[in-house]
Amino acid sequence: MTRTVEISLRTMSLERVLAVVLTVAGLLAVPGYVPAGFAGAVVPFDTPQLTADITGHWEADVTGDGRSFTFLFDFATAGDTLTGTVELSTQDRSFSITHGKVSGNNVSFIAFGVWTGTLVGDELHLTRGLDYGREQKMTARRKPKR
Questions:
Q1: Which of 18, 25, 67, 134 is most buried when burial is the number of CB atoms within 10 A of its CB?
Q2: Is 35 exposed, middle or buried (CB count within 10 Å of its CB: 0-12, 13-18, 19+)?
Q3: 7, 25, 96, 108, 109 from 43: Cα distances, Å
Q4: Beta strands at 114-120 and 67-78: parallel, antiparallel or unpaired
């Protein structure tokens, strides 16, 4: 019995094309894809969560304890991995980002503290975990590098 399958490969990612080819060959079941003429329920695609594009230079002004200073962030992303540096405008040293992750609009990393944040529009709302459970909240904005 021959079945007809009509799909447009031009609009699909390479991974998706491969999955469709393997499905047609009977080697893989693609969620959400039911070839023409086949009966059965359509399972929704597991849509991968897109990661926020926070690559670049960001600055956050902070005022507290009678002092004002600026955090300087230089972020780079590769998939869901976040790397880069964090600096204080009042110091001549930078801290490398370790354990950096991006998931959707959320970020987390370690560099001169434990950081979490959420990208909301053009602003990165950050929380820096400090000693004894204290937190420092700030909003970073993308800026040209100084």
A1: 18
A2: middle
A3: 17, 19, 43, 32, 35
A4: unpaired
Residues 139 and 118: their CA atoms lie apart, in Å, by: 10
Model pTM above 0.90: no
Six-digit token string for 73 = 């962030």
Contacts of 107 (CB under 8 A, 6+ apart): 52, 54, 82, 100, 101, 115, 116, 117, 118, 119, 124
Domains and CATH numbers, the chain: 1-46 (no CATH), 56-142 (2.40.128.20)
- pLDDT score at 137: 95
> How many C-beta atoms surround the C-beta of residue 134 within 10 A?
8
Altogether, the residues listed in the chain come to a count of: 146
Please give the structure tokens belonging to residue 28: 């893989």
